[in-house]
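hey can u check if this looks right to u? its 734 residues, i copy pasted from the old doc so theres a chance i mangled smth
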Amino acid sequence: MGNALRHCLRKSLFVLVGMFMLMPYSAPALAQVDQAVAAADLRVAPDLPIDLEADSFDFDHDAQKVRANGNVVVTYGPFQLTSEQLVYDIPADRIEAVGTVTLTDTNNNVITAERILLEDRLSRGLIQTIKIELANEAWMAADRAERESIERAVLYNAAFSTCQVCEENPDPLWQIRAKRIIHDNNAKDIIYRDAYFDFMGVPLLWVPYFRHADPSVDRRTGFLLPGFSSTDELGAAVEVPFYWELAPHRDMTITPVFSTKELGMLKLQYRERFNTGQLRLDGSVTHVDERDDFGNEIGGKETRGHFFGEGAWTIGDTQRIGFDAQRATDDTYLRRFDFSNQETLTSRLFYDYLNALDHLYVEALGFQGLRQIDDQDETPIILPSIDFHMESGVDGWGGRFFGDVGILGLYRKEGIDMARGHATAGWHVPYVLPLGSRLQVTAKLRLDGYLVHDDPNAPVNASSFEPYGRAEPMLTFDWRMPFIRTEGNFTQIVEPIILGVLAPYDGTSKEVPNEDSQSFEFDASNLFDDNRFNGLDLMESGPRLALGAQWTANWDDDKQMSVMVGQNFRPRRLHYLAATTGLRETTSDYVGKLDLALGDKLSFQHRVRLDRSSFSARRQEVTLHADYDFVDAQISYLQLDRTLTVAGAADREELRADMRVPVYGFWSIRGSVHEDLTNNGGGIRREASVIYEDECFYFEAGLRRKFARDRDIKPSTSFTVRMRLTGITSNEND
């Protein structure tokens, strides 16, 4: 008889777990139970023995009933059932557990009930006064739960929430109550009948009928959570996104936007996953009042919009192809409608091959400038850009041979056209010298060839293709000598560094147009590079010497501080560099950096360039990030004194700060500023918001002021309100 009881208990536990699996939890809650049960079914063999413990056992021969009384514990694989009494009615094939009945699984989900009844070959069941406490702190409670069939379960007088409750605070911040909650496992639907949405104990919304997809369904066609905003320029606006599941690997989101001051907008997003890659397309279109460069309506209508796309696919283990597409109908559309603050849109096609030490990269590039000074006819198209890097294995001397080959084609409707080819061959070898110093020697030869069309600086005929060429041999010596000292858990490393370069002075020609080295900055990151330009058109020529030292300290396993300073020297000045670059003279400006990390709580970085004569700061970049219980903040400061680029960019001095500070309980305030600190500057963006966030509810009310003025873009103020009920709502479409 004990074996019969154990066999029935085994079946009853599977049925009981199945009942709970069918109940309408929230998406994360039910998904967690589903996964736990599915995993348990795989781990628990059908013939696994059941452990049954109780204070006493009774067998009624006449009624054919078995009773387990007092501290009943049934263990079956990862599941454990406890109750005060368990009765097995053999003729009726019925099991009844009474008292405080609990079921615990391996994910620490705890189900509590006053009475559980399983009958009719265990295909039907009844649970009274049930509460489910999930490991993710979500819970459900009901007067009773009934399993009507394998595919259908019903909870009566039920409630669901993710808010924590206790004796001092028995009412959750929010909950959903319903007279009946039905789970149709065949249709994968959760259905609510006569439902109330309560907030702080007050019913805010009643609906006679409410339905959503079974949480086991990852995606389903339907409306998503709407969004709300209000701005000076566009007025009040509401977004109503509609999600369309086209296939398990393909979907689309269609979002109409309605505003009070402009005609509506339509946003579209398409996503698709492939076995070897993914594709994403985003776009928008609107038909609005036409405006002049001062933002005034001029009586007509115009269609405005944008298109962004990206895709990448792998071919085997070594190859990848893809594209990026970015286009807008006009210069100010993206900023006016808060899509992006980009000043240049870049589109490209690419092919990437990487195998061991060989790397081939091919791309075609197109650009759209969004500044008022940009002329699209003078904006280049790059077709093609091919770069191939190869490197040998280690030879008998301990060195490696390397080579680079590249081709570039650049075209404009108006202005210079150019074709460029380059090739570099070299060899580098590292040495460990006596006393532990390290020396790396590199010898290389670079060859460049150009064909230039429509060059106004051409000595003969600007409309013809003029060939130019140059060769640059180079020999570099990179020497470092680390000194290490350890005292307890404190370690210091002092490392002097010397970079010597031997090269001729004829590496850069005035006839070569400068297309890819317009922006140039001399700082600590490129002090020990043999060529400090970020492109190939300009080349740093002549012999030179870079001297510097770095000090690093490590302590308490997660704390580190590093300081580096250095300077560059050369026999004579480089005439083709602007004086403000800091590298033109025989003695360069000083460059340095400071990095400090105190675990994951505090980090600080400072990059600086000091004038070689006055020691005044010509370039500074400071970043501070603090993440403590009392504040979460990131502050950055950028200062570019005078013109520090070959292209002649204007002075810059900016401050950015983002901070969130707890105020009381679950309340906090968040602030953000972006300021232009130059003489003619001012505010760029300021934001402030009040936030309430606990384990089950998120609320944010924020105010934002943008000061930008560019043609039809004027300074504007916006107000937003965002809410999220954790576990049942989300603003993201994953």
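Residues 2-21 form the longest helix (20 residues).
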